[in-house]
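Cont'd.
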Amino acid sequence: MTTMNLSRRRFIQNAAAAGGGLMLGFHVPVSRAANSLARPITAMPEGVEINAWLSIDPSGLVTIRVPHTEMGQGGITSVAMLIAEELDVEWSKIQCVFADANRHIRNNREYKVMSTHGSQLVRLQHPHLMQAGASARERLKEAAARQWGVERSAVEARLGELISGNRKGTYGEFASAAAQIKLDKEPAIKTPGQWRLLGKPMQRIDIPHKVDGSAHYAIDTRIPGMVYAAVKASPVPWGTLKSYNFDAIRNRPGVIAAVELKAVPGKRGQPDLQNAIAVVADSWWRAKTALDLMPVEWDGGESAKASNASYYREGRAALNVKGTPTKDDLKAIEAVQTGKKVVTADYERPFETHARMEPINATVHVQKDRVDVWSPTQDQSAAVLLVADQLKVDPKIVFAHTMYLGGGFGGNGGGGTGVTRQAAEISKQVGRPVKVLWSREEDIAQDKQRPMGLARLSASLGDNGLPTAVVTRGVWFSQDRINQVGPATADYPLFEMPYSFPLRHHDRHNLNTHIPSSTHRAPGANQMGFMQESFIDELAIAGGWNPLDWRIEMTKDKPDWQLVLKTLKEKANFRTDLPRGQGMGVAAVECHGTIAAACATVGVSRRGELSIEKIVIVLDAGHVINPHAATEQAEGSVIWELSHAWLGGLELENGAFANTNFDTYNLMRINQAPVVETYFASSGGKKWGGLGEPAGPPVPPAVANAIWYATGKRVRSTPFVSHDLRWT
Amino acid sequence: MAITLTINNTSHTVDVEPETPLLWVLRDTIGLTGTKYGCGVAACGACTIHVDGQPVRSCQTPAASAVGKKVTTIEGLSPNKNHPVQQAWMEVGVPQCGYCQSGQIMSAAALLARRREPTDLEIDAAMAGNICRCGTYQRIRQAVHIAAKKANL
Ligand code: FES
Ligand code: FES
C-alpha cells in the first residue's frame, strides 16, 4: 500500500490509513442533540482492533467500521446502534468510519456484505453486526475475568465498564488483552425484549455534516493533479459513434484530450459502459463547454425507431396473449371468462428516471501499483471489482473510498454505474487522476431507468360481491430481457397479492427494450403495486364493498395484514362520503418483507387541478430499531413515489428521451408536498422487514383511488398530471 | 482572465473565463464544495448562494457579475453551524442524503432575513425552487418555523 504524504492526506480527507479502515471526514456526535462537531480526522485514534467491525482505544473510545453506505437512510446510525446495543457502550463513546472495501475483498469478504440495497441493512445484516458487538463484549469480560481470577459469568459489562464485585475497569484498559482472546463459543445475540438502545428514536450521526457543507460526496473529490472529464454517450442507448471532430475544440482553454469509450462486449446485461465520447480538460466547466461545442454524430441503429407509443403498442398486444405462468390455473381463467359479473382493467406506467440529486460521477486515479476510486456507489466492494475488471488488474491493488451518497434509490447499485468504468478508462489513458461528471442531461439520458410496465387484471364476482377468481397478466420491458429488474421483482405484487381469492391465475411477459434499466426504490412494488391496488378498489366498489373493509375481509387469515389495515382504519378516518371535489383512498402493498398501507386525502378543483393534502402511512416491518430514521424514510418514500406517479414519466421519442433536465422532467416540490403521518404497527416475532422503500408503493394507488372518489374518474396510468380530471 | 471575488469575507483572485458560472469557480477553482451542482439550469436550487444577501442560483451566475459583491456560501453562513437555520435543521433532523441541503439552508436563511415569521404558504413560495429528492419537505417547513423562533429570541 502506498503511504500518502500528509498534505495529501489532509486534502483527500479519507486516505487509507495503514492497516486500518478508511478514515472518513465524519465522527459520531456525542449526543442526540446532534450538536457536536466532527473531530479533525488527524486526531482520530485507532485503538486496538477487537474484530473487523470495531476498535477500542485506551480512553474507551470505540471506533466502528461501517461496511455499508449512507444515502440518508440512516445506515451509519443503524450499524452503530446494532453494535453498541451488544457491546454495551455509551453512545457518546462511539465514532464511526467507513470500512475498507479493499480489506473486505483481500480477506475473503470479511464484512460478509458491503452492498446497501433492498432495504436490507437492518433486516438481513443485523444478526452478524450484533454478533460482532456481542463477541467483543464477551472477550472484554473474559480478559477482565482472567486478570481478576474470576469466572467470566461473574463479570458484568455495562456502558463501557467491566465490573465484578468491587473491582472495576474500563473497556479501554482491557482492549489489548481482549484482542488476544478467542472464545470457545460465540454468545447469543439479544432478543428484542432485552434491548436497551434499539427501538429508541436516535438522531442520525451524519446530520451535523449535512448543514454546513462539510459532508463529502464523491462529486466533491479533489486530488492533486486531477483533471475533469465531461462525457456524452449515444442518446439512443447502444448506438454507435459515427464521428467526432476534436480539432474543432482542441484549442479551447484548458482542453487536454478527447477519449473515445467503447461499449464492453458481453456486458450489455449490466450496462456499465456505453459507446461514448469524453472531453478532458483542466476544469469540468471547460470540459463540458468544449464537449457541447464539439461536432459529434451518432448512429442510433434500429432502436432509433422506438418510442413510448411503439413500446406501449407492443405491451398492449402482449396483454392479449397468454404469458409465462407464475401460477397456472385453468379453472381461474374459465371462471373469469364465464362469470356473471366480471371486472377487467388495464394499467400502464412509463419509464421513470432515478434523478437522485447528486449527478452520476466518479473519480479514479490509476497508478502503476495502485488504483484509487471515489464513486457514489451503493456497494464499494463491487466498485473495487468493477474497476479491477475494467483495467484488468488485481482487485487487491484497488482502493474504493466510501463517500456520502447524494441519493441512491437503487440506481447506484453494483459498481456504482458505468461511470466508474469510464473514469478508470480515462485515467488510464491520460495518465492522471480523472473526475468524470455526467451533466444532469447525461444523467437523465443514460440512467438505468425504472422499466415501463403494463398489466391487465380481471376478476369474477360472487353474489356477496366478493371475488370468486382472479386472473392477472404483467408485462414489463427490460433490456435484452436480462437486466436486474427481472423475474424476481418485476411483477411480484400481482402474483403475491395477499388476498384470499378462491381461484387465481397469474402470468407475465418480459419484453425486450434497448433502454437499460435497474432496480429503483421498491422495485416492482413501486409500479405493479399501483396496478394491483387500483384494481382492488375497482373490484371492491363493483361488488358494493367499502374498499378498506374489503381488504380487511380478504386478509382475515393473515394477522399481520389485519394489524396494519385495522391500524390504518383507526388512524386515517377513511371516508367515502366526502363532497365532490374531495376524496380519500386507501391501498396496501408488501415490499421487502414489510407491509405498508396508505390513506390519501386529495382535492380536485372543477378545473381538474389535483392537490394532495395528506398521506397516512402504516408500516409493519416486524421490528423498528430507529423509529426516527424509519419515519424519515417513510416520509421520503411517499414523496418519491408521488413525484413519479403525479408528475413524472419519461417520453421516449426516436429511441432517446425527450426529457433533458429538471425543466422538462418534473419533480415534486415543497408547495406540492402533502403532510405525511407515519405509524408503526409492528407484529414483532421473527419478522424483519425493510424500511427504506416500502412506504412508497401504496401511495400512488391510494391517490388514484382518492381521485375516483373526488371526481368519478378512474386513473389507470401515470403520470396523473396527464389526465383530464375536470368535473362538474 | 483574472478576476477578484470576495467569498465568505475572503478575497480570491482566480483565472477563469468571465462567463464561467460562479458554481464552478467555487467548487473547482477555489475548492468550496459545499455548494452543489444539481441541474445547471436554475431548476433545482442545489447551487443556491447569497450575493449581497440575495439568494441566487450560482449555476446561472457568471463569475464576472459577482465582482465587487459579497458572496456567501454555506461554508460562510456561520462560523460554527450556529446560524438559527442550521440549528433548526439539526434539531429537526432535516437532511437525509443531504445533497440538496446547502441550497435549502441558503434559501431558508435568505427567507428569514426578509420575513421574520413566514407562514407555510410563504415558506412554500420561497422554497419551491429547491428540489429535494429525498422528500424532506415537511421537515423543512417545520425547521423554518423553529429557525424563525430562534432568530427572534
Ligand atoms: S444547479 Fe443551479 S439550480 Fe440546479
Ligand atoms: S436530502 Fe437528499 S435531496 Fe434533499
